[in-house]
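Practice problem 4.
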């Protein structure tokens, strides 16, 4: 299953420039970050969906060279798996070679100092994967991502924009993994560019995708700089479990992926660009976004790392817990966040007014049932049936007899 994300802000802005049909979208217009939302899987990953450019040049799978920004060498002289030299003689950013290599020798210099330069990152060699669509062509591949497009001439026309975002994703993936603690995503990530107008993206299974229109003007570029990271956040959290709450995590809202994307964008592209994307997409006006940020400030990123790790350890799958959306799913997710935090966060989610069905007493009951299961495991009891009930949303039945 794949669902798409389109920015409501983007659609409104483009309405004056494009025919009405060009601004249409199948995604929800429910108010929310970028409004429009991201699929149902942590978004991205396993059963659903969720939602990026490298200054200047080509890095084609077969053939030679091309500049990557200006002012420093990128993959000078290195050969890349199929068909000849890769990125020979190009450059990354302004002001110095990034020394980034994909399958060939790495040369060069300090990272660029311009806006969006970020830190020097070596994404490692590409290990090509089968194409999502056999008619597509690969325009870039590194150890992080394999970019595929329906028409190479579209990439060539908007080469500088595509290349900027390719670099941003290469830099951003490690930062996303570091913050969430989630590893094991199959690399390189498949990135599919579809023939569509700005502004849209998706995540599904082991890949992400973006509309070609996202890369064709300044407006689209302002949007995609954050979204390219946010969709990979969806992919990463979907690797933990699918079916995240569609009413306050993904789909018609984008609170968590947006929150992570802003923090990563600040690291790799600088505070000015991160703040611009954050304010353009109106994130500071969203109470749950602000709560996610507050929890990080109170507990640092180890809080989120523990949260995702505990879901994995307990073999939880949100698709087994109620409908989506549903009160029970919401309270289970809040309960697991509370376990990572060390106290019940129910009241704080209730106070946002944006997590429908959040109930502090229910959150506590789920936490108490979890504590009984863990204690019984420690006593050597056979809790397999109890855990089965708990993993399917029956927290009361799971605690019975323990």
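Answer key:
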């Amino acid at each position: 299953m794949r669902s798409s994300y389109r920015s409501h802000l983007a659609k409104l802005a483009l309405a004056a420039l494009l025919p009405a049909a060009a601004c249409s979208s199948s995604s929800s217009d429910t108010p929310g970050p970028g409004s429009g939302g991201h699929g149902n899987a942590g978004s991205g990953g396993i059963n659903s969906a969720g939602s990026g450019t490298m200054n200047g040049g080509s890095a084609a799978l077969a053939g030679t060279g091309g500049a990557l920004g200006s002012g420093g060498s990128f993959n000078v002289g290195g050969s890349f798996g199929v068909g000849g030299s890769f990125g020979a003689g190009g450059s990354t950013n302004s002001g110095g070679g990034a020394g980034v290599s994909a399958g060939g020798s790495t040369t060069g210099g300090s990272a660029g100092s311009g806006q969006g330069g970020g830190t020097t990152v070596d994404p490692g060699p590409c290990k090509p994967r089968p194409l999502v669509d056999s008619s597509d062509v690969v325009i870039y591949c590194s150890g992080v991502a394999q970019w595929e497009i329906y028409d190479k001439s579209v990439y060539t026309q908007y080469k500088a924009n595509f290349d900027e975002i390719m670099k941003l994703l290469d830099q951003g993936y490690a930062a996303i993994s570091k913050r969430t603690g989630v590893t094991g995503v199959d690399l390189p990530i498949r990135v599919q560019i579809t023939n569509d107008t700005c502004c849209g993206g998706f995540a599904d299974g082991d890949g992400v995708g973006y509309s070609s229109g996202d890369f064709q003007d300044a407006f689209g570029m302002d949007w995609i700089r954050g979204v390219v990271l946010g969709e990979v956040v969806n992919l990463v959290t979907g690797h933990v479990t699918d079916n995240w709450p569609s009413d306050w995590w993904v789909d018609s809202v984008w609170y968590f992926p947006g929150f992570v994307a802003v923090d990563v964008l600040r690291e790799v592209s600088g505070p000015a660009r991160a703040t611009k994307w954050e304010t353009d997409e109106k994130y500071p006006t969203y109470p749950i976004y602000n709560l996610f940020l507050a929890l990080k400030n109170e507990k640092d990123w180890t809080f989120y790392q523990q949260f995702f790790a505990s879901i994995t350890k307990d073999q939880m799958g949100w698709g087994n817990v109620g409908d989506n959306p549903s009160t029970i799913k919401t309270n289970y997710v809040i309960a697991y966040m509370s376990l990572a935090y060390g106290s019940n966060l129910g009241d704080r989610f209730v106070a946002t007014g944006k997590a429908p069905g959040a109930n502090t007493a229910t959150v506590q009951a789920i936490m108490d049932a979890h504590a009984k299961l863990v204690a019984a495991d420690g006593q050597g009891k056979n809790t397999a049936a109890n855990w089965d009930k708990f993993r399917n949303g029956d927290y009361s039945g799971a605690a019975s007899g323990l």
